[in-house]
Protein 1
Amino acid sequence: MNTVSSRVPSPIGQIDVAMRDTNLNVMHIISDLDIAGAQEVVRTLAEYLWASGRCRPVVCTFRDGPLRPLIEQTGIAVEVLPQRRYSIVAFPLFVVDMIRIWRLLAGLIKKYEIDVVQTHLLGALDFLVLMLRYGTVLRAVLWTVHNVDFLPAIPHWLLKPKRLVYQILYRLTARLVDGFIAVSDEVRESMIRQIGPIRSSIITINNGVDLRRYGCPVNKADVCQSLGIEVNSCLVVTIGRLTKQKGYPYLIAAALKVTSRYPNTHFLLIGDGELKEALQQQVQQAGLAKHIHFLGQRQDVPALLMAADIFVLPSLWEGLSMALLEAMASGKPIVATAVSGTIQVMDHSKTGLIVPSEDALALADAIIQLLSDPLLAQTMGQAAKRQVEAQYSAHEQAKSHVALYQRVVAHSNKP
């Protein structure tokens, strides 16, 4: 499948490296570098921290992915460490495994003279990272929470007891963490409910989008042709991992009503995940194979968004969706469910339409409303773009992080 590129120069290129004041070395540790929301946060944040001239970021991960070369091409170092080998069930081997990972991370802290470690999506390894405060020159540890349901995913039969254990661990270790970063106000409130009285330790720093990457004009006909779709089609785009959280079964059900009203509508699902086969079966059973396209992970998302007529986010829960911010930055009208994060960003009937979650009929009606009124859709898209530019830029996100790093390091008892 052909792709359409709409990449723009990195903001890094505008900074004179010789003039940098890199007085803080920050390591972002994330579970993987697949194309997904939190991973895009790390990529964009690292680039803008580097461009700020106040930090030298390093990215560390336990599973390589397509974002690694995109990060490295800006001059930011990326370290890929071996993944965990054993679960806590194999306790002796688990302990050996944790010691191995600790030594590898400690070696990176020494190599790059890291001042601050910020974690993303690490689950149990968050607790291991805390131990890096001892025996290294590390001055601060920050945990980032990207979702309202942030406790690790656990098999159903272990759900209640193991999640309770995690809650207890978070409460016991919270005082050792130098700060928690919530990506939205709703995530912050969820952390307080689930962890306990840590309000003073949490700061909300909203996700920010790289405005340079989105909104560049593309030829919609070229995009349609590259996908094998008729050039006069209406394109409804959604982005996210094919998981329960994203609510795709409801979008597929909604597509049946939308395509019966507007047969030239095509739904582009960008992303991959464990529910792909089940969702494809649902599409086949609904007779929608010609209308719903599973595009997998893509590196031409800005072009696909610019070619879209509508962006849909049918999630059951969220933190603060990067895909939503990217679509708004592209000037697209939004149809989204009334979940945390989304309702913080969107203004119903101004930047798009908000519908109840798990309601395929409401989802379909909202999409049909925008398809039937192109002027309304265009007006909402323009309002969405202004909203993101004013409040959710990557520049402001990086600026807030730098201020936090300086604050926690100033309170550190290490020189």
Protein 2
Amino acid sequence: MIVVMWRNFVQPSGVVGEVEAVKANVISLHDGVVAELHVDLLQYVTNGQVIGTIIGTDPDILKATIATIEADLKVLQARMRLDERRNEQSLQQLHWDLLNERLARDLAVSQIKVASNKMARAQLLFDGRLESQEVLDIAQAEFDKLQTEIKVRAQTIADREAALKQFGDANDAAGDPAIRDAIKAKEDELKLTLQPVDVKAPMSGFISAIAHRGQERVVRGESIVTISGTTAERIVGYIRQPVQVMPTEKDTVVVHTRSMKRQMGEGQILKVGAQYEPINPALISTASNRVEMGLPILVSLPKGMNVSPGEFVDLSIRYAKR
């Protein structure tokens, strides 16, 4: 009989457990100061309820930062106006250069007519043997020079006209109101970033711990309050060593409470751990420095059992037939 009982049951002291306590830490998403905390210890909160307000920095620093941003934007706008004036001057200089090129081209066109006539006379005189070859070559060289100059200046005028058009388009874009709107949008974005942020509860439950209160500085990722659930659905159990039989999800567990009015119910193993984990010393002994390793299992809470999250229970496994 003893052998049969040992194979099919584990004594309650051999398997201990704790009703799973679901907790959520409400953390700060950025560095700042807790402006207000609207909750108190053990107060019940609902999911999405505003529990506090955090500002990115102190109000005085916030005002100074906004003033600095506005000053930088004003300096940027002043530089833009200065750049616009410089662009206008450069645009005027381009116009003057273009006019000079056109004037020089027109002058060369008028001169080439004279050079053409001069070259024609030199050719006639050369044919009549009244002028030398040298005079004809000089007239031809002057004509070719003016013709080349006209072509080069025509190309220069075309390039300057294209550059003038591109420069004018770029200057119009620099003064486009869209840029000023973008600057204004950036200013609004910075103001929104520095505005107070409401911190909301991620779940329903009660405030089990408060790490920071009003006017305290917090660091990004630091917990402000801890919210604990009021109900539980699972039990985290530990099988103490030595483990004679490895449990499976087919096995059932008998749950015994440690309260004065003991309750008993039957649950199902939901999961079995892959390695041994430290057991809470309070589950097995009054010695707080005692460390013992156990195989963790996850057990469903028996229906109708009235327990609180974090409550200690004793477990006994009822193995299914192998």
Protein 3
Amino acid sequence: MLGGSIRDCPEGLWRGSLWDDRSLPGFSEFWYVAYHALFWLDLYLSGSGDGFVPPAPFTLDELDPAGALPPKVYTREELERYLALSAEKCRLTFKNLTDEQASRAYEIGSRRQKMSFAELLIYNMGHVREHAAQLSMFLGQEHGLAST
């Protein structure tokens, strides 16, 4: 669903705003919501924030507590490549997941909520699905498209 939305988004909507948020301009644009979902998918699949670095051209700006936008608007092609890398990482994570890894504690960000890696994976699926649904709904409302 996320890939379909990225693929199907017309160029004229790539920087379209999914919701009216004047307090954080840019953070509700289509490209950014897609990027945000992919960044956190990648990070959470890593099992730890220690040493995490997203693939180029992406940066760690998403972790900036001040809420910095990425240094540029990412292109459809960049996000499609990130999605392909993340999909493969997801397949490998589940294929190689052991009971010991699944039960290992994982601390999320500055909130220090502790959960097992298995719980984090379930949370991660919901997070991606939520943003994929937002993007799909936006495309449906603005362009009559429904992504699959």
